[in-house]
Amino acid sequence: MAAWCRTHDPSRPVQYESCGGGDATDIICPMYPDKKHVEKVGSSAAGQNAKWMFAPTRRFPLGTREQPRPLIPCEFAHAMGNSTGNYADWWELFASLPYAQGGFIWDWADQGLHQTDPKTGKHFWAYGGDFECKQHDAQFCINGLVFPDRTPHPALHEVKHVHRPVDVALLSAEPAAEPAAGKRRSAFRVRISSRYDHLPSLAHLSLRCGLEVGGVEVGEAAPLESGGGGWRAVGARDSCEVDLEVVWDPALAPYRPSEVYLALCFTLSEESAWAAAGHEVAAVQLHIDAAALGEQLASQAPPARAAAALESPAAAPLKCSDLADAIEVSGSGAEGAFSVVVCKTTGTLRSLAINGESLLAAGSAALNLWRAPTDNDNGATPGMPAVTSDRKEWLAQFVSSASWSKPKPQLGWATLQPLYLRPFYSTVGPFLRWLGVGAVQSWAYIWKHHSLDSLSREAVAVQLVEAAAERVVIRCKCDLRTPKGRTRAKHELLVTVSADGSVALDTTAKVTRASGMPLCAPEFSLPRIGLRFAAAPDLLGSVRWLGQGPHENYPDRAAGARFGMHSATSAELFTPYVVPSECGHRGGTTWLVLSAPGGRGLAVSSEEPFGWSALPHGAQAIDAAAHPSDLEPEAHATLCVDHRMMGVGGDIGWGRSVWPEYLVPDGAYTWRTTLRPFKQPPATPPAAAAPIAG
Residue 61: its pLDDT value, please? Predict the structure, then answer.
């Protein structure tokens, strides 16, 4: 067939995925290859001709081509639900290989159908199983970069950034001669590269450069044109060096020396057929060493104005009561009267209030090891109906329920798999999973095997360590146990309440994985590790943060998230994936402020960047819902402040695709989180006492 095609139309290449590296295909186009396979076939003709990767449904012939062929995976990223992790890493790998040309995402749009719940009148996007059908693919057609109405998923921001047609690299940064009127000047040299293959120049673009410190723009840069058209004259796949001069105002710059960025934004100069003038085509943030701004921000000691900002009015002495079931601490600072109650039964915060109004409720500051599984978390080898309910078990085609409200996952022969594979998927697969063979276990199954979704908390000891006028220290030691009574984690929480109203939470946690995997112990990762708080729901009225954003991002999907001061409403914090799952996480954060309409609220900070989410629903409710319309606001919002969060993966949707560098191993962790209640939200983050780790 390939020979016939070449004879009758020699102008076109032949692409045939199913022959692997065989001679029939002119393009190496594997489907969902792993990283090692891509490295092999993207490096040489010998790698392309060699034995192909294993696939249970086909056999690949060996190739004999002497000339290497382009590597273009026909599918390599599966965008199902909260997915598309590792995407920037994949394209860095493609760029490093001589014969890799890129690949394709599956797919563009969630293929859901508009439906209205007759009981509630709420809209939802329907998928397999919503039409009283017994055999279906569940949400397997819900795997796009946009929702059915073409509203972008957060992952589309990542894809746009990775495929930006213009890139910038920092070559040098240093202080320059100071201009007049107390301003500062810094000089930068950058390399601007065109990634266009077809445009002869960048003349259709405008460039804006800004210098940002702690999320505040303190100055604007102007390219020093050197003749010949400057950066706009750069041709396709070419580059040039550009000098930038930034005049900035030190009075605007907060003392946050680890958070200095040069931000460059390329926009359309004029309206085009596809976008309006001013549309952002590419944006790049370059991290700058504070020394480039001079001694003021490079110094390890805060300048006088920052030190003054750290001072607070004299606070009243703290009052402390050591009761039978709790320890109560109260005081009055610059923000008014505050109170903190620590529960002796659970070793968590029972309440935190400012001027008599609640901020946090019972169960706050609990060790959090769980997230509502994503589609990728649930994915694994078919034949595992015990992993989740049938609404999410799209891989286990053993569903006979006509209603999502009564999931009845069953083993059986009614699958969509080829006939000769059904005995394996319906019998052998579940048996191997039961034995503990790692290759057939999803992340969700591993987590539930460790009871991370059902741990109970028991205080071992809660004691008052120090009770002074200026601070009170309480130590809580707790065990997190499985339903069978096994200790899965130990949590020590040191609560330090200061007279100014701040509450420092020093956490030491040790998590131990389960034993008893008979044949092999699979790779292990926690979904997350951090603290969970029950927050007053009106605190989601206004949320601001200094960190990565503004859209949802995860450790393996954060290249397109920009560091800065961002804000969001309650609705914007929750991503309404067609099938509800873990969502709304923002990482790389150093300061978070949640405030109610009346002004009161809570500021959260840490000695190192943290991740967080603030949602009107808890993880258990999200995991149980078939559609976002099933979710109802709960009595308290769920605030998760994460020390570490596992990536979401995205290479495939039916196996564990999170790369090793984005896993969260078991073991010991320590970190500090500081809470500051307020009566009116602060305008800017506090000055750093030292450069922020990051």
Answer: 87
Mean pLDDT by 10 residues, the chain (694 residues): 93 93 94 94 94 72 93 96 97 97 96 93 94 86 96 98 98 84 88 96 96 93 72 96 90 86 97 97 95 63 41 78 97 94 97 97 98 89 36 37 31 36 50 54 88 94 96 98 96 97 98 68 86 97 96 98 96 96 97 96 94 97 96 95 97 88 96 97 74 41
**Residues 258 and 290 sit within 8 Å (Cβ to Cβ):** yes
d(CA 611, CA 370): 14
Cα-Cα-Cα-Cα dihedral of 570, 576, 582, 585, to 10°? Answer: -40
Q: 92-98: long-range contacts at Cβ-Cβ below 8 A with a sequence spacing of 24 or more?
A: 93/35, 93/38, 93/39, 93/42, 94/38, 94/42, 97/38, 97/39, 97/42, 97/43, 97/71, 98/42, 98/43, 98/68
The upper half-sphere exposure of residue 182, i.e. CA atoms within 13 Å in the direction of its Cβ, equals 5
- In the structure encoding, which two tokens stand for residue 188, read together? 């930068």
| The model's pTM | 0.90
State in Å, rounded, how far the first CA of the chain is from the last one: 56
191 Cβ partners below 8 Å, 6+ apart? 168, 169, 171, 239, 240, 241, 242
Residue 449 near residue 514 (C-beta atoms within 8 A): yes
Residues 6+ apart with CB under 8 A from 50: 21, 40, 62, 63
Residue type, 388: T
The pair of three-digit structure tokens given for residue 566, joined into one six-digit string: 């961002």
Query: Regarding beta strands 326-333 and 586-595, do their DSSP bridges make them parallel or antiparallel, or are they unpaired?
Result: unpaired
Residue whose C-alpha is closest to residue 389's, from 377, 402, 373, 407? 407
Do residues 86 and 647 touch, judged by C-beta distance below 8 A? yes
Q: How many residues does the chain have?
A: 694
Neighbours of 225 (CB within 10 A): 12
Answer whether the bond into residue 642 is a cis peptide, omega within 30°: no
d(CA 271, CA 607): 45
Peptide bond into 691 cis (omega under 30): no
Identify whether the C-beta of residue 64 lies closer than 8 Å to the C-beta of residue 19: no
Which DSSP category does 452 fall into?
T
Residues 262 and 188: beta-carbon distance below 8 Å: yes
CA atoms within 13 A on the CB side of 587: 18
DSSP helix/strand/coil, 18:
helix
Query: Phi first, then psi: what are they for 89, rounded to 5°?
Result: -65, -40
* Cβ proximity of 223 and 252 under 8 Å: no
Residue 502: which of 269, 662, 674 has the closest Cα?
Answer: 674
Token pair for residue 689? 């006492």
Query: Which amino acid makes up residue 192?
Result: I
* Phi, psi (rounded to 5 degrees) for 357: -105, 135
Task: Label residue 253 exposed, middle or buried (CB < 10 Å: 0-12, 13-18, 19+).
Answer: buried
